[in-house]
Amino acid sequence: MIPSRVLDRILPGVSKPGRYVGHEWNSANKDWDSAAVHFALAYPDIYEIGMSNLGLAILYDVINSRPDALADRVYAPWPDMAAAMRASGLPLYGLESRRPLADFDLIGFSLQYELTYTNVLEMLDLAGLPVRAADRAPDAPLVIAGGSGTYSPEPVADFFDLFVIGEGEEIIEELIDVYRQVHPPGHPRDKEAFLRRATGIEGVYVPALYDVVAHNGVMTVSPREPEARPTIAKRLVQRLPPPPTRPVVPYIEVVHDRAMIEIQRGCTHGCRFCQAGVCYRPVRERPMAEVLEGIAAILANTGYNEVALISLSSTDYTHIEPLVAELVKRYRNERISVSLPSLRIDAFSVRLAQMLHETRKTGLTFAPEAGSQRLRDAINKRVTREDLLRTAETAYNSGWQRIKLYFMIGLPTETLDDVSAIAELVHEVHAIGRRVHGRRAQVSVSVTTFVPKPHTPYQWLPLEDETVLQAKQELLQRRLRSKGIHLSWSNPEATLLEAALSRGDRRLGAVIEQAWRKGAIFDAWREHFRPDIWAAAFAAEGLSADDFARRRYHRDNRLPWDHISTGVDRDYLWEEYQRTLRGEPGSDCLEKCTSCGVREAFNLKECPIVARGDL
Fold this sequence. Notes:
It contains 21 helices and 19 strands. By secondary structure, it is of the alpha/beta class. The strands form six sheets. A six-stranded mixed beta sheet has the order 2-1-3-4-5-6, with helices on one face. β13 (306-310), α10 (320-331) and β14 (337-339) form a beta-alpha-beta unit. It starts with a helix and ends in a 14-residue tail after the last helix.
């Protein structure tokens, strides 16, 4: 255990020491010796971001609900703390037990964003563990990964013993069961025995059991051992497990300092650019009675005065209107607010938001994604200009003074006319606000560069050429230079790295390690991102980020992520891409089945899975 006197000496000298003390309200703090399996849940970013991740909170609850297992949390230390730890010889430790990470049986990282990959290596190094799985001793902790990043795992395959593909609530318990079977009391850790047994669990990928094979310049993987399956299908939880109702309450302010409850998983809209929309199919709703019961318990156990109803598209929840009405009735006098983090572009959404925020109106966010109707149809973002203007009118008239709009540039088939249409749409929205609120009306415009992600209809396409992207950004900067309109855009060098790391193959492991050894850390943070380090790392390995980010694949090419299956047919994805080229919008799963393949892949009786329960 880490002596308190060591932390007492270090923490006063680092920023935000509250990140590193643990023992917050509702933290588990189980007895170390009473647990047979010790699990460290690791988030490769700072405490404030990791504490806002609902997935990690769910797994923390699942593991600590078992009498035979213990889960601790660990987040990436900020560089000042990392330097202090190295100077003092202090290893990275679990917040609850204050045990060094090397004492745990399993260390599970949540991979949500490609630009956090070097933080994984930093955390392993601070724990005193070799960063590569092949270099770790047979009795070292098993290092595993889950989260959306595992749908394209090859760039980080060298660093992990095992990947969990898909949803983790059930699989994490099965892994603990296997661990206990392979390592009964008194037996030393045997990594190879565990990994071979774990491959029998649906959704588990053990990269060490596969060979890397070249096909037309693309490095793909092929099973080497009899236990290794050619294709690893994602794990799907058909019914959402009960929500965690005793979440850890942080001592310091975090990004989302509120209670969260997941009301629905998945999305029916089928936007062709959206990786989450494919990977989290089908939609599964939580019964309304369970949502209400969960919220009551969370509020009683935490003292929060805000609850967020979490979903990819909260207003699509079947019972959203009666749910909101009931929440308003129950909590109006207690001054507890409820938020909908993801709103559809329609007046109905604004009316719901109005019900939930009768007094406090900080801003509303909508995502038209593209400026022109032609392009919105092509990407299957089925909203119209009239939808957005009508919604803006309703929002401004309901008291909101600031609207935030999300757009992307670099989408397939996009022209400069489509980009100009973004500026025209923004000015129209702003004009409505000026008419209602005068100079107080604000429009914030966030323009990110589209990255063609694996498992989507655009997985075969390259990241758009840099000079073209630059011309589009300059056009928007010129056209949106106006009082009351605030434009932000993504860093093109960071986007290039994100695209390379999400679309790359196993050769990128060496690049990531090179970059980390040269000082790359917290790449998602603008002030820490060093593109020169990454360029040198790619060059040292004889590779180029452009080759991975801007490679165009043919339909029949094998792809670096082809051994991972979301259940969605490859032919369906290709046809959706062809519809983009023809400018054809698709349909919504709620209107009719799109025959994407998920229903057959997971033997579903109904799809989407709609909650039948009510009050």
